[in-house]
Amino acid sequence: xxxxxxxxxxxxxxxxxxxxxxxxxxxxxxxxxxxxxxxxxxxxxxxxxxxxxxxxxxxxxxxxxxxxxxxxxxxxxxxxxxxxxxxxxxxxxxxxxxxxxxxxxxxxxxxxxxxxxxxxxxxxxxxxxxxxxxxxxxxxxxxxxxxxxxxxxxxxxxxxxxxxxxxxxxxxxxxxxxxxxxxxxxxxxxxxxxxxxxxxxxxxxxxxxxxxxxxxxxxxxxxxxxxxxxxxxxxxxxxxxxxxx
Length: 245
Ligand code: MN
Prior knowledge:
Blueprint: E1 5-9, E2 11-13, E3 19-21, H1 24-31, E4 36-40, H2 46-55, E5 58-61, H3 85-101, E6 105-108, H4 110-118, E7 123-124, H5 127-130, E8 149-153, H6 158-163, E9 167-170, E10 177-178, E11 186-191, E12 196-200, E13 207-210, H7 226-244
Parallel strand pairs: 1-4, 1-5, 5-6, 6-13
Antiparallel strand pairs: 2-3, 7-10, 8-9, 8-11, 11-12, 12-13
The protein binds manganese (II) ion.
């Protein structure tokens, strides 16, 4: 079977020379599962975005900065972090196309939030301020691989099938989270304090967003997350095979 072509959206890498960049961890995690990853730069016109989208077998939305709250009808909170309107536009556009056309879609951290917003959901802009009684979710002082809280995974969900378990302990590197789950989506994992840690669209071939960063832990402390990348790449491979047929 041919390797499915999976597009990863870039973020702006500012400096003397502006670059469109994508984290190598994401690339490696899906390449090892059989994908042919390609990066999608920011700043393209809609027609160029569409041309790229049309050759994809799957869409991968990586982690990153905050989504602009105007994208879900909210005003900026005092703790809102960096926002990049070009990246929001690229990712929300592509995620909406993916959902409309049932292209396999995986979002990680910010990517899960983009999936929610693209489908009509909303976000908490700062968990600590808006839900102060909960667990710490932006835990960076022990490194990105540190497992900081458990999640309860919904039995029977796509996520559960992919990782093969109903509880999991994960890293947590986010200060925002999904607030209102969009129509067509369900919650497939929560942390003990009730924060939404994964969403998915049951009617789609594969449309999943997870709030943790499995690209840092699948090869070490949380091997079950290899199954998430593998399930996504398998869905994209199936799409590629059925398209070719
Ligand atoms: Mn968390």
